[in-house]
Design a protein that fits this description.
The protein is an alpha+beta fold. The protein is built from 6 helices and 8 strands; from the N terminus they run αββββααααββαββ. The strands form 3 sheets. It has a 4-stranded antiparallel beta sheet with strand order 1-2-3-4, with helices on one face. Strands 5-6 form a two-stranded antiparallel sheet. A hairpin with a 5-residue loop joins β5 and β6. α4 packs antiparallel against α5.
């Protein structure tokens, strides 16, 4: 286990890319040749080795780094990936709740319709009304998704299945054939 004195006096030789000083439970201090010191926690998720950056050494002391590691470990033990959780939190904080898809689409339409024909502008808005997500919601994992995601895929798959039953087999564009061809020798 590391001591605060070891962390303070740690340095990296000029010939090495970095030095890692290991603490307990996957926590380590990484020192670069420039002198910067950062805390990382190494763990495995879904069979892959990952590492979570916890912060810089002078700002985050040894005790605080251990507490941060323990918090991340609790997330990991509950089945969540701490790195992915942090990324979702960052992206969610950038997400403006007032800027819904409809508001953004209407703003886009207002700026672009000057160069569009009236017919196309009307068609574009109709298409947006039909194909926009009905509402956004969060899954159990905290991900944003649309309520139309699954049904749209199911509808597309059923349309494809229906079309494939009623259309002749084609190998070239515009050339239907009664029997499907196989292999390169069937040309």
């Amino acid at each position: 286990m590391l001591t605060d004195k070891q962390c303070k006096n740690a340095s990296c030789d000029a010939g090495r890319t970095r030095v890692r000083l290991a603490d307990s439970g996957g926590l380590y201090l990484e020192i670069s040749p420039s002198g910067s010191k950062r805390w990382f926690w190494k763990y495995r998720f879904d069979g892959k080795e990952k590492r979570l950056a916890l912060g810089g050494y002078p700002d985050l002391g040894l005790k605080e780094a251990r507490v941060a590691r323990d918090d991340a470990r609790k997330q990991h033990q509950s089945g969540a990936d701490p790195v992915l959780t942090r990324q979702v939190e960052r992206l969610s904080s950038r997400f403006d709740a007032n800027a819904s898809f409809e508001v953004t689409a209407r703003e886009f339409h207002a700026t672009k319709k000057v160069g569009w024909s009236d017919h196309y502008a009307k068609r574009w808005m109709e298409w947006q009304r039909l194909h926009r997500p009905q509402r956004l919601h969060r899954t159990e994992g905290g991900h944003l998704c649309s309520s139309r995601t699954a049904p749209r895929g199911a509808r597309a798959a059923s349309r494809l299945a229906l079309a494939s039953r009623h259309m002749p087999v084609t190998r070239c564009v515009g050339r239907p054939s009664a029997t499907p061809r196989t292999g390169p020798s069937s040309r």
